């Protein structure tokens, strides 16, 4: 019995319906990278938290040198290193040797850089006195408490995708945890008795499991985090048991085992948990979607074909922006998961199957290729060529490293020639940053 046939938008709607935005949680800074901030970060402490020196040098009272001509010699009371917790005081007519970031002693309002003195930079005992060869201006090289940020100031706004710089800012204003929309936890399942762990010797009939690494990279680039990668053979019981032992997940993605063969393990293991159908596209015709038990809970499951190019195409066309919705990188609204496209122009010919939308991995054409195709200089749109001479064949995983784009060829088009216009999905630019309409 043949699977029902769906259009690309119909299947995308099924995947999109499963993509529910994850609720906000309180998370330590260490686990917030890539998460979306759920509420503004306001400063709990000022920055800097105390008045300190901006340079290595000597802290002094400016009144003690005002009106004098260089050189000026002052006694040195001692050292104030960064991290010093003992309150210090600078008495009139004296100086403290001070390091960058160290708290200014009470009474001092100016720092003389070490380069403007007779003291040599580097490790040495504090001198008994210092001679100043270049007199500073009042307040030189002093960073005052709260001059950058005052308590209550917003330093990171809600909706930001948190990177190292946002997390550093949050830490600097007194936060050790933030309220965030977490990255979706994804369990990857690669199936097939023929799969062997990458790097292992291959027995007759085996192939390396490349889909696990492909999906791991795609999931993480799209804003998810891989909770587990399960590799199973063709036993439905083995697959079901692996899912039952898996950690909690927000999404399960399977690769392989959903076509019309005799050993389609995902189809047999999931049974009524998922619906399977064909989509009029090449590659990646077989698709599935549903919900399934995983670990101690339940999660949406998206079932992709097993050939690597089909996995690559299907992820970009259906899954990437659904993950972004779950992560709050995109707003939840109808049609938001459709990939964005840009215009391009073919710099080489290729064929496309009649009656199916072709999703063909493409790379930017080099200047020689564009010139040989007779394209104008500069071209009217991005010139592209297939990453492989065999076009969109679904097993050509070794060609994917050059695939920065996926060309979208309509079902009625059977041949693309040099100079023909087409739309492409940009695989190198994940347009899923939070905030704004896309």
Written description of the protein model:
Helix 1 packs across helix 6 and helix 3 (211-221) runs parallel beside helix 6. Helix content is 16%, strand content 30%. It starts with a strand and ends in a 12-residue tail after the last strand. It has seven helices and 29 strands. The model is unreliable at 432-438 (pLDDT under 50). Strand 21 and strand 22 (297-304) form a beta hairpin. It folds into four domains: 5-22 and 182-326, Molybdenum Cofactor Biosythetic Enzyme, Chain A, CATH 3.40.980.10; 36-47 and 147-181, Molybdopterin biosynthesis moea protein, domain 2; 52-143, Molybdopterin biosynthesis moeA protein, domain 3, CATH 2.170.190.11; 341-426, Beta Barrel (Beta-clip). The longest helix is centred in the last third of the chain and has 19 residues, at 308-326. The chain has helices at residues 8-18, 164-172, 211-221, 236-245, 265-270, 308-326, 367-372, and strands spanning 5-6, 25-28, 36-37, 41-42, 52-53, 57-60, 72-80, 95-98, 110-113, 129-132, 142-143, 154-156, 177-181, 185-191, 195-196, 207-208, 225-232, 251-255, 274-279, 281-282, 286-294, 297-304, 341-346, 350-351, 357-364, 382-386, 405-409, 415-416, 421-426. The radius of gyration is 31 Å and the shape is elongated. It has a seven-stranded mixed β-sheet with strand order 1-19-21-22-18-14-17, with helices on both faces. Strands 9-6-8-7-10 form a five-stranded mixed β-sheet, with no helix packed on it. It is α/β, with parallel strands linked by helices and 438 residues long.
């Amino acid at each position: 019995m043949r699977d029902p046939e769906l259009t690309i938008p119909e299947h995308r709607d099924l995947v999109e319906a499963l993509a529910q935005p994850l609720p906000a949680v309180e998370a330590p800074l260490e686990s917030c990278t890539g998460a979306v901030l759920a509420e503004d970060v306001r400063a709990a402490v000022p920055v800097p938290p105390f008045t300190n020196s901006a340079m290595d040098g000597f802290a002094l009272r400016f009144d003690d040198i005002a009106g004098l001509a260089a050189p000026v010699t002052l006694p040195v009371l001692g050292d104030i290193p960064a991290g010093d917790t003992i309150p210090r005081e600078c008495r009139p007519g004296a100086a403290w040797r001070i390091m960058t970031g160290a708290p200014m002693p009470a009474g001092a309002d100016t720092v003389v850089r070490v380069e403007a003195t007779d003291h040599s930079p580097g490790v040495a005992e504090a001198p008994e006195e210092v001679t100043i060869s270049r007199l500073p201006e009042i307040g030189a090289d002093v960073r005052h408490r709260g001059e950058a940020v005052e308590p209550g100031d917003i330093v990171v706004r809600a909706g930001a995708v948190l990177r190292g710089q946002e997390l550093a800012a949050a830490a600097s204003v007194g936060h050790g945890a933030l309220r965030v929309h977490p990255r979706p936890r994804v369990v990857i399942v690669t199936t097939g008795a023929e799969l062997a762990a990458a790097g292992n010797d291959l027995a007759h009939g085996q192939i390396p499991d490349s889909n696990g690494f492909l999906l791991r990279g795609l999931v993480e680039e799209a804003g998810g985090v891989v909770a587990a990668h399960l590799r199973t053979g063709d036993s439905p019981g083995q697959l079901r048991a692996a899912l039952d032992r898996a950690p909690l997940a927000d999404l399960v993605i399977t690769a392989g085992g959903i076509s019309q063969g005799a050993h389609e393990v995902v189809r047999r293991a999931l049974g009524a948990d998922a619906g399977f159908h064909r989509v009029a596209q090449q590659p990646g015709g077989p698709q599935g979607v549903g919900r399934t038990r995983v670990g101690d809970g339940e999660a949406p499951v998206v079932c992709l074909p097993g050939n690597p190019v089909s996995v690559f195409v299907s992820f970009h066309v259906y899954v990437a922006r659904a993950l972004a919705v779950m992560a709050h990188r995109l707003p939840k609204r109808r049609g938001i998961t459709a990939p964005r496209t840009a215009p391009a122009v073919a710099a080489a010919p290729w064929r496309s199957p009649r009656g199916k939308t072709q999703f063909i991995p493409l790379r930017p054409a080099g200047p020689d290729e564009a010139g040989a195709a007779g394209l104008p200089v500069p071209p009217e749109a991005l010139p592209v060529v297939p990453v492989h001479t065999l076009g969109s064949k679904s097993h050509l995983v070794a060609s994917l490293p050059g695939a920065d784009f996926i060309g979208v060829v309509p079902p009625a088009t059977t041949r693309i020639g040099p100079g023909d216009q087409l739309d492409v999905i940009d695989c190198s630019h994940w347009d899923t940053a939070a905030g704004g309409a896309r």
